[in-house]
Design brief:
With 552 residues, the chain is mainly beta. It folds into three domains: 124 residues, Cupredoxins -  blue copper proteins (Immunoglobulin-like, Sandwich); 193 residues, Sandwich (Immunoglobulin-like); 199 residues, Sandwich (Immunoglobulin-like). The chain is 6% helix and 37% strand. The chain contains five helices and 32 strands. The strands form seven sheets. Strands 10-9-12-17-14-15 form a six-stranded mixed beta sheet, with no helix packed on it. A hairpin with a 2-residue loop joins strand 14 and strand 15. The two termini are 36 Å apart. The model has no long low-confidence stretch (mean pLDDT 95). Bound molecules: CU-O-CU linkage (C2O) and copper (II) ion. CU-O-CU linkage binds next to strand 5 and strand 31. This is Laccase.
Length: 552
């Protein structure tokens, strides 16, 4: 493969959206940030200069980084933040991925403005598993907050209050014609009639699953999360934060302008839908002569808010391509089986001024443990055998079983433990995890669960409490979709499988930043195999240091 070099300069820059001007930390002056374009098998060095006001890390979402968690990015998991005035060069290794992925900041909520797409073309001498499109374009969904979001979140975490979903959504940095003060600034995708385009869609919003549709046009879904799918044609897609989707669009309508629009499909808070800030639009514009200035057509096929049936219908169509060139490799004999309860919770208020549910602080957990970041990154502590920074006792199962999707709960499951508990795995273990959502405190929601360093097969999902006797009979072991982010249905479950063949320290978390900030994450450490080729690489010389005193 080829080696590419990118320079990313992080700097505060002014942006005006929805009648509000504010400063945002962005890369190279743009929102979304620059696109990285490579072929499968390439390596990219990204030199990140932090000219902002606070520490930042970057993550290459969906890139497996074989044996190289040193460049994976989540703060206090695999590195310490790059401090203002400092730089760090990430080495991003593209091994198995093909399609679209993305990069984003992985510190505080900075990913809101620090993100961009990664396009991975087939290796030289190989082709797409579908006819070569006439063009391609990246479509990134983002969130806009009128206020400074890191400040708001910090204050909310102090008081235990809920944090905002966003003030609107963006498509390629623009809210579109239907939002305040946004008319005329929409992103436009220019097409020629009769041609086919590959839209590379990234959901980079902070807290919401989205529907997306193009007026009068169907799309054909061909890939997801850097893996190919069996193509299927649909009038809309559903996409969760963290996920990426490759869709073909044939410009087969009359010359004109058509809205491409997103809509949020669920929130646990009513105020999010009191006015319609969930529609962001862009314009699909045919090249040619226009006789009328009529507004573009709005997609009638965009499912409405809370249309879970539309989501399910879409998700059931996701199947791996499962071709000789792109085979499926689901492990059949499982050595480690886990059941992870994904839940919202509360932490009792220490001082009677908390603003979460019941006057407590909002929290969230996996198997009733809220992750607490250690003062130095877990990767360094693991690599240097330093004790006291984490414990190896993340449980394979919840400590108490209950009716997860009922309305009444034992008190102890509403209040989680806090700690830095990791799950240890031997090299090449075959792992199955069932994630189970809950309705604790009446807060059931979807959860886009993302694993670093891996992709996995999603072999089943459903509503209600997982039934270990019956559900496995319905598992798809033939052509399950391969993802790096799986959406656990609201009040439901999903089961995934993977082989632990990438040694290192890897973060597992909900990709809603509200939930992540409250503790909905854990860490998997995959031990080395017995050869150098199956062991963790050496750390680079210039890893950012933490600001706490510790001994080497
Ligand atoms: Cu999109 Cu932890 O990542
Ligand atoms: Cu979540």
């Amino acid at each position: 493969g080829h080696v590419h070099h990118y320079e990313f300069v992080l700097k505060e820059t002014n942006f005006t959206r929805l009648c509000t001007t504010k400063s945002l930390l962005v890369v190279n002056g743009s929102l979304p940030g620059p696109e990285i374009r490579v072929h499968k098998g390439d390596t990219v060095f990204v030199n990140v200069y932090n000219q902002g006001n606070y520490g930042v890390t970057l993550h290459w979402h969906g890139v497996k980084q074989p044996r190289n968690p040193w460049s994976d990015g989540p703060e206090y998991i695999t590195q310490c933040p790059i401090q203002p005035g400092k730089n760090f060069t990430y080495e991003v290794i593209f091994s198995k991925e093909e399609g679209t992925l993305w990069w984003h900041a992985h510190s505080d909520w900075t990913r809101n403005s620090v993100h961009g797409a990664i396009v991975i073309l087939p290796a030289p001498g190989t082709a797409f598993p579908f006819p070569q499109p006439d063009g391609d374009e990246v479509i990134v969904f983002g969130s806009w907050y009128d206020s400074d979001i890191n400040t708001v979140v910090e204050a909310d975490l102090q008081t235990g209050a809920d944090t905002p979903y966003s003030d609107s959504y963006l498509i390629n940095g623009q809210a579109g014609d239907l939002c305040n003060c946004s008319k005329g600034s929409s992103h436009r995708t220019l097409v020629d009639q009769g041609k086919t385009y590959l839209l590379r869609i990234v959901n980079a919003v902070m807290n919401a699953d989205l529907f997306f549709a193009v007026a009068e046009h169907n799309v054909t879904v061909v890939g997801m999360d850097g893996n190919y799918l069996k193509p299927f044609t649909t009038p809309y897609i559903t996409i969760s934060p963290g996920q990426t989707m490759d869709v073909l669009l044939l410009a087969n309508q009359s010359i004109g302008r058509y809205y491409m629009a997103t809509r949020q499909y669920y929130s646990v808070r009513a105020d999010v839908i009191l006015y319609d800030k969930s529609n962001a639009t862009a314009i699909l514009e045919y090249r040619g002569n226009y006789t009328s200035q009529a507004d573009p057509v709005f997609p009638s096929t965009l499912p409405s808010y809370m249309d879970f049936r539309a989501t399910d219908k879409f998700l059931y169509q996701l199947k791996s391509l499962a071709s000789p060139e792109h085979p499926v490799d689901v492990p059949l004999n499982i050595s480690t089986r886990m059941f992870i309860v994904v839940s919202m919770n509360q932490i009792l208020c220490p001082n009677e001024t908390c603003m979460g549910i019941n006057g407590n602080k909002l929290a969230s957990s996996l198997n009733n443990i809220s992750l607490v970041n250690p003062p130095i990154d877990v990767l360094l502590a693991y690599y240097r055998n330093m004790s006291g920074f984490y414990t190896k006792d993340f449980p394979d199962h919840p400590t108490s079983y209950y009716n997860y999707t009922a309305d009444e709960f034992p008190f102890n499951v509403t209040v989680p433990l806090q700690g830095t508990k990791v799950k240890m795995l031997n090299y090449n273990e075959t792992v199955e995890i069932t994630f189970q959502g809950t309705d604790v405190l009446n807060t059931s929601a979807t959860h886009p669960m993302h694993m670093h360093g891996y992709s996995f097969y999603v072999i089943g999902s459903g509503y209600g409490n997982f039934d270990p006797e019956n559900e496995p009979k319905g598992y798809n072991l033939i052509d399950p979709p391969e993802m790096n982010t799986v959406t656990i249905p609201k009040n439901g479950w999903a089961t995934i499988r993977f082989v632990a063949s990438n040694p290192g320290v890897w973060y597992w978390h909900c990709h809603f930043d509200r939930h992540l900030s409250w503790g909905m994450s854990t860490i998997f450490i995959v031990k080395n195999g017995d050869s150098p080729e199956t062991s963790l690489r050496e750390p680079p010389a210039n890893m950012p240091r933490c600001e706490v005193p510790f001994t080497d």
